[in-house]
Amino acid sequence: MPAKPFHLAWFLNFVTDDWTGTWGDGARDWTGDFYVEMARDLERACFDYVILEDKLMVSTAYGGTMEADLKHGVNPKHDPVPLAVVMSQATSKLGVVPTMSTSFYPPFLLARLCATIDHIAAGRFGWNIVTSGEDRAAQNFGMDKLYEHDQRYAMATEYVDLVCQLWDSWEPDAVVRDRETGVYADYTKVHTIDFVGKYYKSRGPLNTVRPVQGHPVLCQAGASPAGRQFAARYADTIIATANKPAEMKAYRDDIRAKMAALGRSPDECKVLFLIAPIVADTTEEAFAKKRRWLSDPQFIEFVLAEMSSITEIDFAKFDLDAPLPTVTTNAERGFLEGFARRAAGRTLRETLADEGMGGIGNLVGTPEQVADAMAALMEEAGGDGFLINTPVMKLNRRYVTEIADGLVPALQRRGLTRTEYAFDHFRDNLLAF
Ligand SMILES: Cc1cc2nc3c(=O)[nH]c(=O)nc-3n(C[C@H](O)[C@H](O)[C@H](O)COP(=O)(O)O)c2cc1C
After folding, report:
1. Alpha helices, DSSP H, located in 312-421
2. Is the pLDDT of residue 371 over 50?
C-alpha cells in the first residue's frame, strides 16, 4: 500500500544568493531573477509553497557592531512582498508566502495588501505572521524597544481578528457586475466592522474586494507556549523546528490538541518541519560535501552572526570550546531553547560543526537514501511534511536542482509527494491530503 503523501515547502531569505562559492552566480543584483527562476523549479517539483522570511533591521547583536552582519550578508535583504508578487506571476500553482510583522504594519494596510496580492496571485497568497523579535527593528519604527514577548502575541491575536474581519467586510457575493442595473458592488453586502479592541481600532470596510480565497492562507511559527496557542488559533500551516522525531511528534500533538480545544479540526492545519538535506550521487560525496561546508572558516562566524541577529544575544562573547551558558531572550525564544537543548553536553564549536543552525540532522546521502529517511521520519513522528532550507544559507542553482530534480523525484517515485496539483488555489492544495 502506498505511503500517505506529505507536503513540501521551501524556506527562503531574500538575501544575496551564493556569491562566495563555486556554484553561485555572484549575487549580481537585486532584480529577484534568481528567486523567480527558483519559484518555477519548485512548481515543477510540485511544492505547496515558498515562504519568504523577513527581518526589519541590520543587526549589531554580534560583537556590538554591524560588521559581521554586513560582511556575511546576514541581514542585508530586500522586501519579500514584491518578490512574492513577481514569483506568483512566473508560476500558476505554487503558494507564495511573504513574512509581514504584526508589530509594524498597520492592520488595515496589511489586510489590503494581502487581499490585493491574493487577487494578483489568483488565490495563491499566504501571509507568514510574525510578531518580530528585535529591539533593533523596533528602533526603526520610532520605538525604543519591542513589547514583551507574550504581550506581542496578545496584540497579534487582536490584530489577526481585526484583519480577518476586514477581509470578511465584503460578503462573498458582494461584487455583482450587473450591466443592466449598472451596479458593480452591492452596497448592502459590504459592511463596516467598527472594531474597537484593546490595542487596535478600525472602522472598515476594506476598500479592496474580498480575497480570492476568502482569507489568504495563514502561516505561523510559534514555538513558545504563547506562540503555539496563537498558531493553533489561526494557522493553516505551521513551520516548526525540532531536533528529533520525539520533539516533532510532541510539537504536532500539542498543536493538534490546542486546535481541538479551540473547536478547530486538527487536520485543517499542516505542520511542516524544517530540514536541510544534503544530497549527492553517492553517500560518500554527500558526507564529504557536508564536511566541506561545515569546515569553511567563514561558516562559524556566519552562523554565530545569524544566531545573534535572531536572538539578540551576543554569541561573540561565548567561548566556542565550552558549553553554551544559560541564556534567555525576548526575541526568538523557541529557536534558542531548541538550540540550547541540542548543545547540551557539547561545546558550542562541536554543536556548530555538527549541524550549523540545526534542524533535524542526518538527512545526508543519495536522493534515494534521503527520501527513505524522510519517509521514516514522517512515519515515526507523524507530520504533514517538510520545509526545506539550505544547510549553509548560501543558496545556488545547484542546490535547488539537487532538491527539485534529484530528491523530489525520489520522493515522488515512493508516492510520498504529489506529482501534480489537484487545485488552482493554495489552501485547496494544502488541504488536499
Ligand atoms: C522556519 C521559521 C521561520 C521563521 N521566519 C521568521 C521571519 O521571517 N521573521 C521573523 O521575524 N521571525 C521568523 N520566525 C520566528 C517565529 O515567528 C517565532 O518568533 C519563533 O518561531 C519563535 O517562537 P516564539 O515567538 O513563539 O518564541 C521563524 C521561525 C521559524 C521556525
Report:
1. 333-343, 348-355, 367-381, 397-401, 408-413
2. yes
